[in-house]
Amino acid sequence: MARLKLKLQLYCDDEVAMGPGKADLLEAIGREGSISAAGRALGMSYRRAWLLVDQMNRCFRKPLVETRPGGGKAAGASLTAEGEAALSAYRTLSARLAGDTQCTAFEDLESAIRARPRPRPRE
């Protein structure tokens, strides 16, 4: 049986404003309370996580993540109301698209796909 995997990406000009990895990063920031801890939880460097946050904040009309610089308990990052709304809308749309496979086009493709790929020819 074929498996359908959709990768929803929203673009701002030529930049990916939101995709599955950025949605995961937003969730991790909300859970961990900092960009560095979110990056660690997802196995990415602080720099990579920060660059992704910066890209999202530049692409959306209002920032999705706000940072609180400094040290101690007051420092960190959190999702703005817009960030929470964007994450929720993205997850809802992704789930809707992934669940909407009951159509003739998908059934046609599914019936045309083999259960397993043919072996590669020997060279």
How would the blueprint of this fold be written?
Blueprint: E1 10-12, E2 15-18, H1 20-32, H2 35-42, H3 46-59, E3 65-68, E4 76-79, H4 81-99, H5 104-112
Report on this model:
The protein is α+β, with helices and mostly antiparallel strands. The chain has one domain (10-112): Winged helix-like DNA-binding domain superfamily/Winged helix DNA-binding domain (Arc Repressor Mutant, subunit A, Orthogonal Bundle), CATH 1.10.10.10. The chain is 51% helix and 12% strand. It has five helices and four strands; from the N terminus they run ββαααββαα. The protein has a two-stranded antiparallel ribbon with strand order 1-2. The chain has a two-stranded antiparallel ribbon with strand order 3-4. Strand 1 (10-12) and strand 2 (15-18) form a beta hairpin. The mean pLDDT is 89.
SSE order, one letter for each helix or strand: EEHHHEEHH
CATH classification class: Mainly Alpha
Largest sheet: 2 strands, antiparallel
Rg on CA atoms, Å: 19 Å
Q: Approximately what portion of the residues adopt beta-strand conformation?
A: 5-15%
**How many domains in all?**
1
InterPro entries: LysR_HTH_N, Molybdate_resp_trans_reg, WH-like_DNA-bd_sf, WH_DNA-bd_sf
GO molecular function: DNA-binding transcription factor activity
Protein name: Molybdenum-pterin-binding protein MopA
Organism: Croceibacterium atlanticum
Task: Summarize this structure as a short list of keywords or feature phrases.
single chain, 123 residues, alpha+beta, Arc Repressor Mutant, subunit A, two-stranded antiparallel sheet, 5 helices, elongated, WH_DNA-bd_sf, LysR_HTH_N
